[in-house]
Amino acid sequence: MRVSLKDVALHAGVSIKTVSNVVNDYQHVTPAMRARVQASIDELGYQPNLTARHLRKGRTGIIALALPELGNPYFAELATEVINAAAEHDYTVLLDHTRGRRDQEILVSRGFRTRVIDGLVLSPIELEAEDLRSRTEQVPLVLLGEREYGLPYDHIAIDNVAAARAAVRHLIGLGRRNVAFIGARRGHSQPAHLRLRGWRDELDAAGLVADSRLVAATDGWEHADGARAMAGLLDSGLRPDAVFAYNDLIAIGALRAVSERGLRVPEDVAVVGFDDVAEGRFGAVTLTSVSPDKAAIARMAVESVLAQLNGGEQRGRRIRPGYRLEKRESTLGTSGALAHSRGPTPPAG
User: Which pTM does this prediction carry?
Assistant: First the structure.
C-alpha cells in the first residue's frame, strides 16, 4: 500500500503543507520540524512521487545522454557517472546510441525525443557545426568530447591539447625520442586532432622531430585497430621507442602487437593511453593513461542542463574539468610503477 503525504502528516501531527515543504526541501522549515517530519517519513517508508513533482513544473524528469559507443568502456563509465549525477537531482537518464554516425547525431540533436526529455547531453563524433546552427529546438543541449564547435552551447571537455602534451612530456622525460601517435582518424580531420596537436606541440617544444611517418591512422578506436597500427609501425622499420595512443583500447591493442613481436614494455617500447578505463589498470602490464575526471564531467553536464531549465542564460561556455596522468608499468616498468605508487621516500631521521 502506497504511503501518502496525508499519512505522513497524520503520523507526524502536522499539516500536509508542512510535509510537502520538507519533502521539497524548502528552506523556511525549522530544524526541529524538519527532523520530526523526516522521522515519520523514515518510519512509514514514504517515497515521493517524482514523476508528479516534475510534471507540476512542466517537465518529464528525464535527461537524454547520447553516446557514440555504448560498448566502449570509457563511455560506459561516463554513462554511470551521468546517471549518478542526475539521480542526485531526482532525474532519470535515457541513453541513446548514435554509433558515431552523423545522421543519428543530427536526429538526436534536432529533438526527435523533445516531448519526453528535459535536456540532452550529446557526445558527437561526426556532427558538423552547420548541423547545430540550424537547430531550432528549445530543449537544453550540452556537448561533450574533443570536437570544438564555437557555438552557443555549453561544451564540457578536458583540455585535450594540454593532456596530450603531458603524456608526451612524460615519455620524453623517460628518454624516449621516437614517439609515435596511434589513432589519427583515417579520412577525417576532426576527432583526434587536438590530441595529435598536443603530440606535435610537445615534440616541437623538446626540439624533436614530429615525424609524420610515426602517425598511424586507424579506421576505428578498438583493440584491433591499435594492434594493426602498431604492427604496421614495427614492420615499417621505423621502430618507435614510445607510443601515445588516442585512447586506452588502441593502447592495449598496441601492447599486444609489441608483445607478439617479442619486444618488451616498457624497455623497448613505452606506451601511454587516454581515458584510464578499468581494463587498462588490470592487464598483464598496467597502462599509463591520461585520466579525465569523469565524475566532474558528468556533474557539470547535468548542472548545465538544470541551470538552463531554471532560466540560466546560455553563454556557450567552454568548461574544463580536470585530468591527471596516471603513471603505471607501461612506461615505468614494474619496479618503477611500484615506487611511484608508494610516493616519495620520507627523509631519514
Answer: 0.80
